[in-house]
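Ops channel
N.P.: pipeline sanity check, posting one input/output pair.
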């Protein structure tokens, strides 16, 4: 019975929620009802988070076993990934963190605008507030997005493939997790059917396998959220100047 609970949760994450998200984008994403979009998607993230916690509690599986713990160098050295790949992932992670710190410093000192008007894909304009009254619902939605993608998606995909489907080849595990993450992002097929989501999925899945912890993933998503906040601030500044 537990097997089917895992399958149902997997189907909801990978197929059902993205399809509903795509429907919501067409219905509310480009209208004045963007708040409804944020509220609806927040509800789906809450369902996923509660379903995930309930399932693992019901099965008696420790959350530290699925990465809800601090990482260590012993986990890094024990990882089955090749050494060059390990250090490449760490270097990319460090580069991203340094970039966020640099952006924060530039914004604090008001040296220049960081983001051009055409920097991001068109899906960005649906997932970020365009009016002041949308900021609160967007912030709540974004916090849930950060929590679910970092604390649930990658640990759940890893547990499913390794402990439920018994995939033993670590490279196959990485590919399967990356593909699952890629499918989750396909609500915007017109500008997300690219190599970028696949690369990000491969990077984050490798980071989880390497550290056996969700903390680096959580840090990555929090930093990405900080960049989104800076971008939103710039968009509002442009609106005032227009």
């Amino acid at each position: 019975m537990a097997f089917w609970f895992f399958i149902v949760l997997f189907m909801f994450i990978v197929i059902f929620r993205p399809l509903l998200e795509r429907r919501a984008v067409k219905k509310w994403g480009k209208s004045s009802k963007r708040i409804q979009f944020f509220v609806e998607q927040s509800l789906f993230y809450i369902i996923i988070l509660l379903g995930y916690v309930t399932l693992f509690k019901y099965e008696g599986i420790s959350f530290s076993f699925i990465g809800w713990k601090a990482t260590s160098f012993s986990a890094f050295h024990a990882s089955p990934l090749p050494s060059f790949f390990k250090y490449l992932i760490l270097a990319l992670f460090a580069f991203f963190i340094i970039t966020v710190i640099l952006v924060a410093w530039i914004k604090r000192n008001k040296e220049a605008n960081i983001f051009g008007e055409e920097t991001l894909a068109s899906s960005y304009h649906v997932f970020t507030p365009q009016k002041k009254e949308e900021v609160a619902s967007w912030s709540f939605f974004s916090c849930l997005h950060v929590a679910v993608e970092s604390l649930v998606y990658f640990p759940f995909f890893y547990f499913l493939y390794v402990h439920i489907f018994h995939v033993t080849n670590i490279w196959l595990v990485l590919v399967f997790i990356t593909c699952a993450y890629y499918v989750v992002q396909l609500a915007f097929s017109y500008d997300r059917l690219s190599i970028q989501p696949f690369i990000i999925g491969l990077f984050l899945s490798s980071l989880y396998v390497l550290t056996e912890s969700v903390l680096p993933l959580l840090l990555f998503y929090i930093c990405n959220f900080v960049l989104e906040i800076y971008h939103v601030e710039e968009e509002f500044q442009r609106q005032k100047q227009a």
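N.P.: looks fine end to end. The two ends are 59 Å apart (CA to CA).
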